[in-house]
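User: histidine kinase, Blastochloris sulfoviridis:
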Amino acid sequence: MDCGGAGRLTAQSDVTIGAAGRIGTNSAAAVGAGRTRARRDVPLAWLLAFLILASVAPLVLIGAYTIMRWADVEHAAEVGRVSEVAHTLAQAVDRELRSHSETAEVLAASRALVKANFQAFDEQARALSARGGHVVLVDRALRPLVDTRDEPDRPAEVRANPVEQVFASGRMKVGNAGPMTGEPNRFAIYVPVSVEREVRSVLMLMPPPATIQNVLKQTYRPEGWSAAIIDGEGRVIARSLPERGEGDTRVGRAASPGLLAPRTESEGVLTVSDLDGQQAVAAYRRSGLNDWHAVVWVPKAVLEAPSNQRRNAVLALLGLTTLVSIGAAFFGAHLINRSTRRTVNAARALGEGAPISLKPTLIREDNLVCRAMADAAQIIAAREDALHESARQMGFVMRELSHRSKNLLTVVQSMARQTGRHTSDAAEFQARFEDRISSLARSHDLLVARNWTGATIAELVERQLMPFLDAANDRVSLDGPTLLLRPDAAQNIGMALHELATNASKHGALSVPSGCIRVAWRVEEAAPEPRLHMSWEETDGPPVTPPERRGFGHVVIERMVSMALRGSARLDWKPDGVAWTLDVPLAAVCEHMDQPIAAAAA
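Assistant: Predicted structure for histidine kinase:
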């Protein structure tokens, strides 16, 4: 691709544009300084690698923080699972105990006990004992009245404490029955037997020894999890360990100190040491029927193993992604370096004025650089022309500003001279002159707001009447089409409107609350050219009489405006109010006559 067709540039190291927009060359010292700086440059591959690392580093940090938070959430979720399993186990134990307690209550309500027919009740109790349970009925002296055990002749070693509690409270209780049966994990359901609202005996229902152990076996637990049921005395009713099957020799004995901690709380999570001395997470839940606790514990290594595996996989993936990104950066830098060297050679050839022929590369941007260097010469030339045009426009604006300023100063000079001619007092001159300068300034503000393109008649009237009326006043009505006045016409008509408004506020319609003003204008199609007819009419004001002396305001209203706009003006002193009419060629006040005239609402 040949890039020399757009123009030749002389050999140079740094290109500068002077005040006149000319392109020049720097000295040899600048070239040497540029080469000195180039020796301290770093390869593009390093910059890309740094860019990749700078881009990846926040992601790595965010990823690490996310992984840590994720691990915390996973740990909390696993701890929640332990609590859920403990809750499920406690509910299962409650269902089992409730089933046996209902059986015991049915037996306690037997009619045989009401009639003290212990032989008949013994038959009923033995029918239940056939399913593996035992029933013992004792009185207040702890004497067995009914005993369905296999050795009925053996003295009943009834524990006094739970029986006495049932006699005292009249409520069911689940307690230890190991001393009576010789089985450490045996428990009994103590139910009061009431006859005529008096607790006369206590019925003890002893389910089979493996009842709670079977509940542990049937309740789901993930692999590696342990569970135990502890009664209110801290004794292990049942326990299941992964390495010991569904039972061990610890059953019936006091639980370890770590598992005895939750005896005073209904539920919770704590950290304990397992049989191997490892840290474990334990969750406990109190039974809803008694003071038993279901405890589930898991070694931390087992509990955290799934989340650790996922975390390690994510970290490995993150590290692999970083390595791949860095490798891609170096590979991309190699391609860019090769293309950049070709572009540098092309730039040197362009600087020497030699033609350039560059083969396309894999990078589109480098292929466009050569064409961009050729286009740059055209852009610089275009900018130079634009600077000359801008300077020309600035000169025109300055000349126009000087012309308008001279016109404005001429108007101010004439205004001062005429005001001084018609006033004899310095204070009166100052007041009138300041009012007229303010009126002229309001017209100029309106023109400046429209970028000096002109002003509409409605805007001009509203702006000139602004010092004499508040914004919400409806005493002035406007009626006419939308016409854009030329700046000089707006200035002259604005002066006349100011003088009319000043007279109305002092002597006319605006001097009394009932007075009104109607400003109307229209375009009349007449030969040889259209004309603008504008009128100012005051009504409901004080009686009007022609003034004895005519001042500068009358000169402005009757002569200056009409002469400046090549028309005629007339001021009538009617009894019901002042009337002023202006008739001028439309071309003298409106510059853009090719636009349609829009009617304005009154």
